[in-house]
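Handout, tutorial session.
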Amino acid sequence: MKGFFRLISCSCSRFIRFFMITYPVRPKAAIERLIAVLQPLGKKIDIAARKRLPWDKGHSPFLYIFLEGEMSVSRISDGILVATAVDPHIFGFSEMFHPMRSNMLRAETDCVLYRVETDVAEQAIEQHGLWRDVAEILAFHTNTMLCRDLQIVNQRTYPIVCHYLRELDALSEETKERVNILSYVQERTGLSRSSILNIISSLKTDRHIDFVRGGYKLRINSLPE
């Protein structure tokens, strides 16, 4: 029996390691169909970098159709950045059904969005039979958050930092020029500055990573496991 439990434990560990690197596929077609229907019903808004967006005005909630720029979602309770979008996307379906208002939207760069009243959006979604597309987007958000939690919850500091270094390294050169490495990791994890700096400094000393003065323009050479 003890051997059985050890086998189950090992199998679960292998499953978790596999699942951690298997991120859900972005439902591009569903997003495009919803944007095509909802954008003409919205009001265009240009948002400056670092500005926060409200989920509602009074008791009238919004959907946001995000088209250009870089938008982040952060937890209000502790400011942890949980997701970033650079491709066209729609925010607000969860808040439309369950208005917890536990997250906030923030423009990381100048952004172009369309704001749509949710009662108008619901009518259009019903009329065009797009509830399956809404479900696909909600499932994508849920599974993305699950994968994120698997990467950082109950994990050691070193693999968490390495995960976000790889994530940052995969971004465009333009983004890496304006994003500070320490801030990028700390905003997404809540780890202390000293623990992150110790790992980054050690990796740079051993030539596993390179960056310019100030902690910008990350380049990964090779990260030890």
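The second record follows below. Compare its token runs with those of the first.
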Amino acid sequence: MEKFDRLTAVAIPLPLANLDTDMIIPARYMKALDRAGLGTHLFRELRYSPDGAERPDFILNRGEGRKARIIVGGSNFGCGSSREHAVWALTDFGIRCVIAPSFGDIFAGNARKNGLLLIRLPESTCERLREEIALSQLAPVTVDLGEQRITLASGETIPFDVDPDDRRTLLEGLDDIARTLRHERAITKFEAGA
């Protein structure tokens, strides 16, 4: 899994509450077992019209929005079904961080396992972030996981907290297997009956 330390990238405001996993990637695009290419179906119903043409008013289809790596969303982001494909679609598109007031529980677990940083901030802070991002015309934002702070284009910094285990997992780029292998010596000792 790719390490996450510090990311300076375009952030987009996406103020939709209860954005469920079916909105992130519709079920009909989950037939493949490979993650590659799922990003083209990210937010399918929001990004494309029924005939497949891009909706020019959707932020990921416009200018700098196409380069987004950070989303500032609404509450309960990633609610709904347990599909890991939702996280795969976000990461395949290039999204590395989602900032929102709250997340679906299963979505949050899937995000951690796939290197997607989730930052929980109060709704009022998220709203201010979305406004600042829009005013700066999507100027890059820096998310520093090591320092646990977000730096806006204006220079303003916003501190955030992350679960210490999630932080370590992301900083070291550890997937579930690598996390288990950190305890290889104890596992071997246990298996030997010592």
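Points raised in discussion: The radius of gyration is 18 Å.
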